[in-house]
Amino acid sequence: MDFLASVLLSLALSAALALLFVRFTRRGGLQRLLPPGSLGLPLIGETLQLIAAYKTENPEPFIDERVRRHGPVFTTHVFGEPTVFSADPETNRFILQNEGKLFEVSYPGSISNLLGRHSLLLMKGGLHKRMHSLTMSFNSTTIIRDHLLVDIDRLIRLNLRSWSGRVLLMEAAKKITFELTMKQLMSFDPGEWTESLRKEYLLVIEGFFTVPLPLFSATYRRAIRARTKVAEALGKMVRRRRREQEEGTVMNDMLGALLAGDDRFMDEEIVDFLVALLVAGYETTSTIMTLAVKFLTETPLALAQLKEEHETIGARKGPSEGLEWTDYKSMPFTQCVVNETLRIANIISGVFRRAMTDIPIKGYVIPKGWKVFASFRAVHLDPDHFKDARTFNPWRWQNNSGSTTSGNVYTPFGGGPRLCPGYELGRVILSVFLHRLVTRFSWVPAEEDKLVFFPTTRTQKRYPIILKQREDSAWQ
Ligand code: HEM
């Protein structure tokens, strides 16, 4: 209810501005050059159709129908603004690569307010470039191999040890990813402090999909209060670590790197940066963990092949031995499963940008200030690029790039200057999780659960499963 009221209010508030804008472009003759499409109803455009489609298991018709009528680059009007949608890989690449030059990142007000203005996700220009590269370096293959892998494996095992009977997989996976991120960012092991921070943090995330007006949305008010508490707790931690670092205790984690750098960041900047990293890795990785299990459960042949791969790895290790990089590197079928889960789930279904100037594209013009949505999902599920595109088929990745066309049409982690810094980390976490899960447990779904895609990709019931420990499970 709260969400729907929020969406409608947001539409009403921004519609007047959008209409003025469209009128202006019509007068100026730009409409002739706009990508074809429909702006839908006055005020709400085609928002309700989009929401209705994405709340089902099969949101594809929303884009499919428009692509059929208008082609892969079309105009629509959603969430209060005229928006150009791209279902075309070349256009998507152009949008991603021209970040900061022709297009700039654009998040709804609720998300930017709750992230904080110094968040990496909102940064632009030179500072973004520097911070993006620092974040990449902290998630590099070398760091994962030499430092993070041990903690990933240890924390996943610690969590799985307490799993028995009925488990809400999505919730359990979220707990794991939060704990992993806290460890990576500030060397914290799970405990009371991290758990109480996680509870506040969940309230912050709930506020992302509301209208950022405290008077109208109780969820948003709660999220703002929780954001203040999270900032206070992290701020205290940053101050303590700054003191310790000045006294000579340097920790080898992301916070340590931020405190030690030449940039001399203020506490508030560091806190916003930490919040952004917690947000970016949390929902995405835990959702991919859940959906990989769901797709495997529904594809028994793939699950059997995956088990075999992990049993072979398990057989050469002692019961309490941790996974090593060479183990991760000997999981070729798991990597096919990871690729295919990312392709078919499309947790980030695409990215919103804003045109910084009038931009000619494919014979049309995207007017300055307009929203653009590069849909990764539309390309990943396009039968022109992937055979039987809407079927989960990990084997498609065995001998080639998965797609039937040349060129890079697979972008689950985006691309260009905002390429996801966690692209390798996410893959490693999922692979280690699958290893520990299939070698310790067998499971069945506790009840039927459906995938939906709005406001985020998730299963309706958080994917409840019933677990049974395998009799031959050796690890402790
Ligand atoms: C497997 C799950 C993941 C998926 C599917 C995913 C996907 C993406 C995508 C598509 C973007 C690009 C957004 C844009 O262009 O606006 C992105 C950005 C980002 N991701 Fe991930 N991500 C995942 C995991 C992670 C993890 C584990 C981290 C933790 C380090 C992370 C950190 C980030 C950050 C900080 C950004 C913002 C980069 C920027 O704006 O410069 N992600 N992610």
From TrEMBL:
<keyword id="KW-0503">Monooxygenase</keyword>
<protein>
    <recommendedName>
        <fullName>Cytochrome P450 90A1</fullName>
    </recommendedName>
</protein>
<comment type="pathway">
    <text>Hormone biosynthesis.</text>
</comment>
<dbReference type="InterPro" id="IPR017972">
    <property type="entry name" value="Cyt_P450_CS"/>
</dbReference>
<dbReference type="GO" id="GO:0016132">
    <property type="term" value="P:brassinosteroid biosynthetic process"/>
</dbReference>
<dbReference type="GO" id="GO:0016705">
    <property type="term" value="F:oxidoreductase activity, acting on paired donors, with incorporation or reduction of molecular oxygen"/>
</dbReference>
<keyword id="KW-0408">Iron</keyword>
<dbReference type="GO" id="GO:0004497">
    <property type="term" value="F:monooxygenase activity"/>
</dbReference>
<dbReference type="InterPro" id="IPR001128">
    <property type="entry name" value="Cyt_P450"/>
</dbReference>
<dbReference type="GO" id="GO:0010268">
    <property type="term" value="P:brassinosteroid homeostasis"/>
</dbReference>
<comment type="pathway">
    <text>Plant hormone biosynthesis; brassinosteroid biosynthesis.</text>
</comment>
<keyword id="KW-0560">Oxidoreductase</keyword>
<dbReference type="GO" id="GO:0005506">
    <property type="term" value="F:iron ion binding"/>
</dbReference>
<comment type="similarity">
    <text>Belongs to the cytochrome P450 family.</text>
</comment>
<dbReference type="Pfam" id="PF00067">
    <property type="entry name" value="p450"/>
</dbReference>
<dbReference type="InterPro" id="IPR002401">
    <property type="entry name" value="Cyt_P450_E_grp-I"/>
</dbReference>
<keyword id="KW-1133">Transmembrane helix</keyword>
<feature type="binding site" description="axial binding residue">
    <location>
        <position position="420"/>
    </location>
    <ligand>
        <name>heme</name>
    </ligand>
</feature>
<keyword id="KW-0349">Heme</keyword>
<dbReference type="InterPro" id="IPR036396">
    <property type="entry name" value="Cyt_P450_sf"/>
</dbReference>
<dbReference type="GO" id="GO:0020037">
    <property type="term" value="F:heme binding"/>
</dbReference>
<dbReference type="GO" id="GO:0016020">
    <property type="term" value="C:membrane"/>
</dbReference>
<dbReference type="GO" id="GO:0016125">
    <property type="term" value="P:sterol metabolic process"/>
</dbReference>
<keyword id="KW-0479">Metal-binding</keyword>
<keyword id="KW-0472">Membrane</keyword>
<keyword id="KW-0812">Transmembrane</keyword>
